Amino acid sequence: MAGFTHLNEKSQPVMVNVSDKGITHRSAMAQCIVTLPEKVLKALQENDFKTKKGSVFQTAIIAGIMAAKKTGELIPLCHPLGLENCELNVQLNEQQELVIQCTASIEAKTGVEMEALTGASVAALTIYDMCKALSHDIVIRELKLMEKTGGKHDFKRK
Asked: Are 106 and 13 in contact (CB under 8 A)?
C-alpha cells in the first residue's frame, strides 16, 4: 500500500507523524456547489436569502467556520489544528447555483486541506437544512480542493 500515508507497514491505520516536519504557512481553499430548485431560489431571493431559521448565507458561513475548526474531531486521522484563519464565501453564480468557497490557513507542520473541505461541505449542508422545508430536490455537488500551499506539494486546480 505504498503511497497511502495513513497506513503503516502492516496496513494498519495511523496518524501521520509530522514531528520532523518544519513549520510553514499552510493554506487551502475548497469549493462546493449547491443547486437549488427554481422555486427555492425564487423564494430565497424574494426574502433577501432569509428563512424563518435566519439568514441562509450568514448561518452557512458560521456553520462552515465552526466545522473547519472541529475537523480533527470529525475525521479520525486528522491532526487537531488551531486554525489561525478561516473564511467562507457564498455567492450565486451565473448558472443560479450557490458556490461556497472555504479558505483555511495556519502556521503548522501539516496542511489544512481537510479543514477547508469540511468547512465548505458543512456550509452546503447548512444551506440544505435551512431550505429543505421548500424542497428535497436540493443537490450538493462538486466538493473539491481548489488549491493548497505551504506543504511538500503545492496544488492549484486549473
From this structure: no
- Within its chain, how far is the Cα of 84 from the centroid? 16
Q: Which residue has the cell 462538486?
A: 142
pLDDT digits (tens, 9 = 90+) for 81-112: 999 999 999 999 999 999 999 999 999 999 99
Could you give the number of structural domains in the chain? 1
Q: What is the CATH number of the domain that holds 139?
A: 3.30.70.640
Tell me the CA distances in angstroms from 6 to 13, 38, 70, 77, 107, one per residue in order.
6, 43, 19, 7, 22
Rounded CA-CA distance 127/115 in Å is 18
Range of the domain at 121: 38-149
Q: Is 129 a catalytic residue?
A: yes
* pTM, entire model: 0.93
Axis crossing angle, helix 113-131 with helix 56-69, rounded to the nearest 10:
150
Separation of alpha carbons 131 and 134, rounded Å = 6
Q: Which amino acid is at 148?
A: K
Q: Is residue 31 part of a domain?
A: no
Marked catalytic residue, from 20, 48, 129, 154: 129
State pLDDT tens for residues 51-78.
888 999 999 999 999 999 999 999 999 9
